[in-house]
Write a structure and sequence with these properties.
By secondary structure, the chain is α/β, with parallel strands linked by helices. It contains 14 helices and 15 strands. Bound molecules: pyridoxal-5'-phosphate.
Length: 408
Amino acid sequence: MSWIDDKAHEGLARVREAREAGVYPFFRPFETGGIRTSVAGHHFVNFSSNDYLGLTTHPKVKEAAKRAIDVFACGLSSSRVQATTTAHVELEERLAKYFGFEKALITTTGYQAMVGTVMSLADRDTTLILDNLSHACILDGTFVAAGSPGRAPEVRFFNHNSAKSLERVLKTKERPNAMVLVEGIYSLDGDMGHLKEIVEVCERYNAVLVVDDAHGSGTLGVHGRGILEHLGLEGRAPIVVSTFSKVFGGIGGIILASTEVIELIQHTARSFVFSATLPVPIVAAAATILTMLEDDGVALVEELQANARYMRGELVSRGFDLGLSDTHIMPVMVRDERKAMILHQMLYDRGIYMVPITYPGVKPGEERLRVNITRGHTREEMGLALSLLDELGGACEIRKQDQVAPAP
Ligand SMILES: Cc1ncc(COP(=O)(O)O)c(C=O)c1O
């Protein structure tokens, strides 16, 4: 055995423990797509899906993808530099118009979109300023930029959602140009970015704001244009990055900015230039969902929000702690890794899938079950989840009223 086998064995201790206890929750092989699916014939409703508008399996979306296969097949065998299609260009034009930016660029994943944006725009004249609860794609883009020979930017963090903390960093930064990176909705806590205050500080200090709106695009704002529409801030953030892997039914990244900023990213972002083109069936699926948002966005968003209001009201009235959440992403806080794994397994055995989020996704003591409400969940499904959470969450003492106060 070489050192790499020893390292792997050691690194997998927690995974082995969870498997031996029969509560390992990850990589379950679904037998169909959609929020109602099965594993080895065991049926369940998925509350960990990011298909927030429930459009991923819509017949029109599947038909569009099938038609695109006949023309373009499933791959273009090269990167966008050599393999751009009319479908990519048309969708980029439509996305720019819909979100109100000069230009859009489609990448192969949202992760690559953010890594590419940061690595191509940040250099030694830049201070990158990150919220301390930033998603991995923001952190990794920053790490790549910081490791680029001769270009490394300064890297600073500010306290989560605190405009005051951001301002303190802006006052003491050491490079001339500031780029501030935030999210529309923080995906593990389900809380919105405090962008009104953050935009105002960025404008005062001439800092470029980059908003990752992966979870807000199609879910926030009356028409679904995201956090900027929701907060009345459209036109005040120069760069937005988003994804097709939630509302847009597939996979793929979106970068929105001015024409020249997009063209610079398009020619210099290594994660874009050196990775293969997003397949056209996926582009066709996203284009179909964009049409649905253009035609019926108001109703689609309101149906999602109505489900979210219902579930939030019921969870709160039953005494569950939803942490920082103020959106359709509602983590049920468990604050104990073992309990989170056991509760997940008991719910799964009864037909409800809520993935536990544990370290390193969150700090030890912050463990939770990820509950994502979508437009596609029915009241009956949410009702079943609530009654099981009531019964099993009570048994695991995760609700405030179930917790026995420690002896004085
Ligand atoms: C906040 C945030 N940004 C970016 C991404 C990456 O998106 P994609 O799945 O398209 O790579 C995700 C997905 O997990 C996310 O939650």
